[in-house]
């Protein structure tokens, strides 16, 4: 057998958004250019405060973004600062009213939104009655790629909420065995990958593992292969969907 076979029994504690009582995905705080201060002079921020005031005994998930100005490293740092500022603001204005479950600094928003709409922290809301998903068994062999059940918004690197189970699997695997490293390989279908979407998707997963799981980036390699390694001939939508994937390969440095 090539490598060491690991069997992991993962209790996935990430929120089950499909069962959650979601307030609205558009609930956000917006920021001025290069700022991390929440200003209630912004009408949208006032509306968000009003919505938050009506919540009780719920979990919040925070995701921070920036516009396209600045380097990747600078934008991640700014997103982290906006998370910290939002967390502090929530605790000061609504002490004990709800719990912050997860904070993710995603950096630059690569969507087609205006810069004013990109400078934000999104707030996802889930009832505290939401239960974790069932235990999940995953196994892997060192050096052998496994296909992850991670899906993205079409044409973008934004991870769909339903895919966080496998991200949690990656996170807990790397946290449990600090001698493990992982390569994340992104793949797309259908023509060229001139925008390197495959690489951006792999990099996005790495960002989540680093920012949310506190895993060293040096243990994670993110790479995009475009459409160079299809699993199937793209003669049907089912095959094209299968070719759009992210694979993880665990290994240990010699």
Task: Lay out the secondary structure.
Layout: E1 5-10, E2 28-30, H1 43-53, E3 58-66, H2 72-93, E4 99-108, H3 115-118, E5 120-127, E6 136-141, E7 146-148, H4 164-176, E8 181-187, H5 197-213, E9 220-224, H6 237-243, E10 245-251
Parallel strand pairs: 3-4, 8-9
Antiparallel strand pairs: 1-6, 2-5, 3-5, 7-10, 8-10
Q: Which structural category do the helix and sheet elements fall into?
A: alpha+beta
Strand content: 25-35%
Instruction: Sketch the major β-sheet.
Output: 4 strands, mixed
**What is the straight-line distance between the termini?**
18 Å
Instruction: Give, in order, the helices and strands.
Output: EEHEHEHEEEHEHEHE
Average pLDDT taken over every residue = 79
Explain what this protein looks like in three dimensions.
The chain has 2 domains: 128 residues, OmpA-like domain (60s Ribosomal Protein L30, Chain: A); 111 residues, OmpA-like domain (60s Ribosomal Protein L30, Chain: A), CATH 3.30.1330. The chain is built from 6 helices and 10 strands. The strands form 3 sheets. Strands 2-5-3-4 form a 4-stranded mixed beta sheet. A 4-stranded mixed beta sheet has the order 7-10-8-9. α4 crosses α5. The chain is globular. The N terminus is likely disordered.
